[in-house]
């Protein structure tokens, strides 16, 4: 349903059922109380009087939190217009210079954090694997198991504990929250300093705990945190209130910096600067322009230079177990990659398998997340118990399964893992032999992927070991991510799972395929990424940057297109599914056909709260205290105009700033021309994410309550408006493309009240619309996807075909 007063936040934040008659009676009484005659403000009764009962909360990390929307619209009022007119050429140059300086700063910090994360994981996990290898060589098998399982349990428990007790917003990958923020959704603490610290430390501990997770996704959130903190526009608490920084006290500039930070995070995690820009463009950002691409590209270039400088230092042997690294993580360069027409069928098969397995992966992941969220809702103790149970289960699997694999002679392979993690593991085998399954399990995910991608390694692994690796990585990846209370990501585990079944397909083809098994592993990773995340261009470039093999481009493009097409027939991508599971009100880039059957007036609700151009202070305070609305239409009535006319829209934050300043009038008259000059633009600037002024903090005396305040200088006199007969589908496109928070609805006839209602983000949500118009459920647009009955028939057909 639509939000009363057309705002996206209201005072009732908890979910309520719209079918309860008792609740409707209570709401009617509340409306009656608001319409007290002593208040001199306008109340417009609309056709529909049901309040928007949809929940205004979403899951942020492991907790339910109230959510709000962001003001991406450019506010035009007298105060801000005067500030812009007063700026000279020097101020404009300062503004542009600061933007590039902030991008430079973001790139350096993101590159340094990415390097530090990789260094910490390699050393912590490497020390663990070296200790276990020494114990295994000494035939102390049980001691090795307890060291392995105990260290994993301690690391994961620590990561879960700091997330649960310090910042729950740091849990999970963070990509859904970043994607929602760039779409216009603001949630508390997602970009705070403590979230950043917990994200860094928790990711290192969780990835080092042998959990089947990665550090790439959290780096996107970390980069976004850095961008958001840089764009806070200064801090009064820490006395960082430089005049230059006030230019960035708005959501528009912060959105650009967060976008650059997210791109830098991808570049730092995957050593893919161009892929980072494309990832932010294709998967994260809802609004883009050429200038932003240029700044994001500059930021990721700074990340690449920073990483190169830091890895060169480690190349001299100053970082212990940390490898030489560099921008090319999995170097599989070849002078030629010869493939024939006969090699295309297995590549196409890889794409189909990736699409089917990817869509199934998404379904199972959502179900596990839903079950684990029920456990996490019981409290911190249950989150720690869940993490401990998952850690013990995974440790038993990783340590127990290699005992099933036979030993193989080392021949020309480096079987010495002492003080050199990343090689082939001896495990329980005699000297000069190695356990291929243990070599895949007892390494970091990066080292395992490097082994699977390796050229000329067709005889290094048995088919049974690759099958076990695929099954374990597929299942353990889903199980690992279910521990949503700790920070980690999906990208690298999905690459590993895809690489294992890609190599398996190459083994199955045998001599019939001209491609190396390592190339099949690369294509398998691409197909599984396309099947789960549904990204094409960015994944294609990232894979090429990771492997340094441009000759693979045609095959990677083909397998990505096929896997995405197949997977789209079943369900959306994994990040969209997690967005829905969290309850974040994300606006898609398309309007569903049932929206064309409705006009904007069909979803508005009342009563609408408005202010006069010159309003009584007591009325302003009362409405701010009794509602949670974040914007109010300002209507001029006689004697300030010949007839009621919409002057504009004023924000709640600006009203609070006006009340704090206490520039009140004794009579109901328009303030002088110098009223706007009494305020600075920084006083009307938007505070950081999740920070808001409260009306309870404003002290107004009884005498001041009887005074008046002129709202004209602080009102946005050019808000976006639509006529009441516009289709809801057309309004949605305008709302998303312009990054709006409020969209005013004006009547078609001039004889009616000057404003009909206000559309906000929640008014475009499907559950709101279906609550008002249940008959539309049957006509809801859906993509061409297979239903469960179709899937069952398809599975039965495949089984019958395989058995025959």
UniProtKB/TrEMBL annotation:
The chain crosses the membrane at residues 95-116, 144-170, 257-281, 287-307, 348-372, 384-404, 474-498, 519-544, 550-570. It is a multi-pass membrane protein. Residues 1-32 are annotated as: Disordered. GO terms for cellular component: chloride channel complex; plant-type vacuole membrane. SMART domains: CBS (SM00116). InterPro entries: CBS_dom, CBS_dom_sf, Cl-channel/antiporter, Cl-channel_core, Cl_channel_pln, ClC. It is found in: Membrane. Keywords: CBS domain, Chloride, Chloride channel, Ion channel, Ion transport, Membrane, Repeat, Transmembrane, Transmembrane helix, Transport, Voltage-gated channel. The keyword Transmembrane applies. GO terms for molecular function: voltage-gated chloride channel activity. PANTHER family: CHLORIDE CHANNEL PROTEIN (PTHR11689:SF147), CHLORIDE CHANNEL PROTEIN CLC FAMILY MEMBER (PTHR11689). Belongs to the chloride channel (TC 2.A.49) family. This is Chloride channel protein. It comes from Ensete ventricosum (Abyssinian banana).
């Amino acid at each position: 349903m639509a939000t009363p007063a057309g705002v996206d936040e209201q005072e009732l934040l908890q979910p309520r059922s719209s079918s309860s008659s008792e609740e409707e009676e209570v709401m009617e009484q509340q409306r009656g109380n608001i319409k007290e005659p002593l208040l001199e403000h306008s109340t417009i009764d609309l056709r529909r009087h049901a309040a928007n009962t949809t929940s205004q909360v979403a899951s942020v990390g492991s907790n339910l939190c109230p959510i709000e929307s962001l003001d991406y619209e450019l506010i035009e009022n007298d105060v801000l217009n005067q500030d812009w007119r007063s700026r000279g050429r020097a101020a404009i140059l300062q503004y542009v210079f600061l933007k590039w300086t902030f991008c430079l700063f973001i790139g350096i910090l993101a590159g340094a954090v990415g390097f530090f994360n990789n260094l910490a994981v390699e050393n912590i996990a490497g020390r663990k694997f070296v200790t276990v290898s020494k114990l295994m060589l000494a035939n102390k098998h049980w001691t090795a198991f307890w060291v392995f399982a105990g260290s994993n349990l301690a690391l994961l428990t620590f990561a879960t504990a700091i997330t649960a007790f310090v910042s729950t917003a740091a849990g999970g990958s963070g990509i859904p929250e970043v994607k929602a923020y760039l779409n216009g959704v603001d949630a508390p603490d997602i970009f705070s300093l403590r979230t950043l610290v917990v994200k860094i430390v928790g990711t290192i501990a969780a990835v080092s705990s042998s959990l089947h997770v990665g550090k790439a996704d959290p780096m996107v959130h970390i980069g976004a945190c850095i961008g958001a903190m840089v764009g806070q526009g200064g801090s009064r608490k820490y006395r960082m209130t430089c005049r230059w920084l006030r230019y960035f006290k708005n959501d528009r500039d912060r959105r650009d910096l967060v976008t650059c930070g997210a791109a830098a995070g991808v570049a730092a995690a995957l050593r893919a600067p161009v892929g980072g820009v494309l990832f932010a463009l294709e998967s994260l950002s809802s609004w883009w322009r050429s200038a932003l691409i240029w700044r994001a590209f500059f930021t990721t270039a700074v990340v690449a230079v920073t990483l190169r400088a830091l890895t060169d230092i480690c190349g001299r042997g100053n970082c212990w177990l940390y490898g030489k690294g560099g921008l090319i993580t999995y170097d599989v360069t070849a002078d030629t990659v010869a493939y024939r027409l006969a090699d295309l069928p297995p590549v196409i098969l890889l794409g189909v398998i990736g699409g089917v397995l990817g869509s199934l992966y998404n379904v199972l992941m959502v179900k596990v997340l839903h079950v684990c969220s029920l456990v996490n809702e019981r409290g911190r103790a249950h989150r720690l118990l869940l993490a401990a149970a998952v850690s013990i289960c995974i440790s038993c699997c990783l340590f127990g399964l290699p005992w099933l694999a036979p030993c193989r002679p080392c021949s020309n392979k480096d079987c010495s893992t002492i003080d050199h993690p990343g090689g082939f593991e001896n495990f329980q085998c005699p000297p000069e032999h190695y356990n291929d399954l243990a070599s895949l399990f007892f390494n970091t995910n990066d080292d395992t992927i490097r082994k699977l991608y390796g050229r000329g390694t067709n005889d290094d692994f048995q088919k049974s070991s690759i099958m076990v690796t695929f099954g374990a990585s597929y299942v353990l990846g889903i199980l690992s991510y279910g521990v949503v209370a700790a920070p980690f990501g999906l990208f690298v585990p999905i690459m590993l799972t895809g690489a294992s079944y890609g190599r398996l397909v190459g083994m199955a083809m045998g001599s019939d395929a001209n491609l190396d098994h390592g190339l099949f592993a690369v294509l398998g990773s691409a197909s599984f990424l396309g099947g789960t995340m549904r990204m094409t261009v960015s994944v294609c470039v990232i894979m090429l940057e990771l492997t340094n093999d441009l000759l693979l481009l045609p095959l990677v493009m083909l397998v990505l297109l096929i896997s995405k097409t197949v997977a789209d027939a079943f369900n959306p991508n994994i990040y969209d599914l997690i967005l829905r599971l969290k309850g974040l009100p994300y606006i898609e880039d398309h309007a569903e056909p049932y929206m064309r059957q409705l006009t904007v007036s069909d979803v508005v609700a009342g009563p609408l709260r408005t202010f006069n151009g010159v309003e009584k202070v007591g009325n302003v305070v009362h409405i701010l205290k009794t509602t949670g609305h974040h914007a109010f239409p300002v209507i001029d009535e006689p004697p300030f105009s010949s007839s009621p006319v919409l002057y504009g829209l004023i924000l709640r934050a600006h009203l609070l700033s006006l009340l704090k300043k206490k520039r009140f009038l004794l009579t109901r008259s328009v303030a002088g021309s110098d009223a706007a000059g009494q305020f600075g633009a920084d006083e009307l600037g938007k505070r950081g994410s999740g920070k808001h002024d409260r009306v309870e903090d404003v002290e107004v005396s009884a005498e001041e309550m009887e005074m008046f305040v002129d709202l004209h200088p602080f009102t946005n006199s050019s808000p976006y408006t639509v006529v009441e007969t516009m289709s809801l589908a057309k309004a949605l496109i305008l709302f998303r493309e312009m990054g709006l928070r409020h969209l005013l609805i004006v009547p078609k006839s001039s004889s009616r009240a000057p404003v009909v209602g206000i559309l906000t983000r929640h008014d475009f949500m499907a559950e709101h619309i279906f609550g008002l118009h249940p008959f539309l459920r049957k006509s809801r647009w859906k993509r061409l996807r297979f239903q469960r009955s179709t899937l069952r028939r398809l599975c039965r057909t495949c089984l019958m075909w395989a058995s025959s």
